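Fold sample X.
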Amino acid sequence: RNQVQSRQVIGAYPGNYFTFDNLDFGTVKGFTISYDLRTKGNVSMRASYTLQFADGTGSSTTTSQNLVSSGNGNLRTLIPLAFDQRHRFVVAGDYRYGKGKNYNGPVLFGKDIFQSTGLNVTMRAGSGTPYTKRSRVNGSGVLFTSQGISPQEGQLNASRLPFNTTVDVKLDRTIDLQWGKGEGEDRKEATLNVYIQTLNVLNAKNIIGVYGATGNPDDDGFLEAAYQQPYIVNQVDENAFRDQYVVKARNGFNYALPRRIRLGIQLNF
């Protein structure tokens, strides 16, 4: 309770004004089931499932700004919050070889070639978060000046983004470092962990945002809308406008990051 939200003070002198107040409240309910397989041989694994319901009167401090600016008062109603993710799955598996007497991997020319080496695979999946459906496209997501109003269709945050899945893979090897002579304070020890990590290894096009009128991440429907054709035709170059509009609408901001590969070194001492 008592979360900050925009409000309008009516009847103030010399006129109405906008400010922030402790108006919002929200409730997050849910539970998590987890399974932890401690290291058994070379394998360890963790898995969890979370079911969540997040409802409130505002997802941020400016959620009600348009409402109170339109003269409707400081109305509040329960809606699904912007971070309301109904289902979330996380599975992480690790296969790792030990060292010395604990090594049970392949040996080549008398060397334990996979000593202190491991492979980690993590899968994260979750249902889509809410967004508000619009009944009219006005180009506000692309144009500097929107063309007409964009009425809300249905309840606020009543529509959902699609399910997302991401798989990350990490291969690493730990190397023991020692320097100095003798024992005790004269002898220093550290470990060097060298790894290569691939994020979103499947290069999945996970959708994190859509245009409200179409529900698509790369097409807001403006170029096909009959009521927007006069505006399009009156541009200096209609074809150039259409081409550049498509490029801007497909800017990639509605997608999560693509595949990335990282090479890293971590020193522990």
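Fold sample Y, listed below.
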Amino acid sequence: IDHHEGLSDLNHGIIRSIGDPKRRFEEDALRILRACRFQSKLGFVIEATTAEAMRDSRHLLLKIANERILNEWAKILEGAHCQMAIQTMIDLRMTDVFPELARGMELLRLRSNHSLNTIQFFALCQYLNQEALADSWRFSKKERYMINRLAELVEVTQNDLFDALIVFGYGTAFALMANQINVVINPDNDQRPRIEDIDRHMPIRNTCDLA
């Protein structure tokens, strides 16, 4: 039984609201981001009437709990077609709702070969805006710490090289995460081979290794 021709939409790669899309988004505005999440995962196009309603209803996202929005953002960022979904969000003016993320979104949509997780993306936006974003979103204490430290490390290494003291102090995994952000900002600033070489030749891993 297929009352809404869903099988046809699936076969043609179309995301469409059931019935009146404005009413659906008034019922739960998070569906606006969910459409983008489906696009990020599947690479489907969003049907024109649904997309128009998403744009016209975007202000309703301001009433949605912060943690629910973060959950959708995480899934958008991890999708195989993330850049496509980010482009849709920009086209539908969702940067009006998330102005603090606008510069990060603009950068990320241009980098089809690079992806960031939620922590990295917010660290990128924090670095670009030069203001603390982690505290205004409902991240855990550990996640806020990671965002702040990553933004700090990106600030240090955007125009300078990673050295042994930085890799030792922040840890190799953390340095590689910051390097991914650096590459999104400037594709020519890929220091991954340098970081891995420093790690291979690291004489100690922590202070307990000191004689």
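Sample Y note: The CA atoms of residues 22 and 53 lie 5 Å apart.
Also: The chain is about 60% helix and 0% strand.
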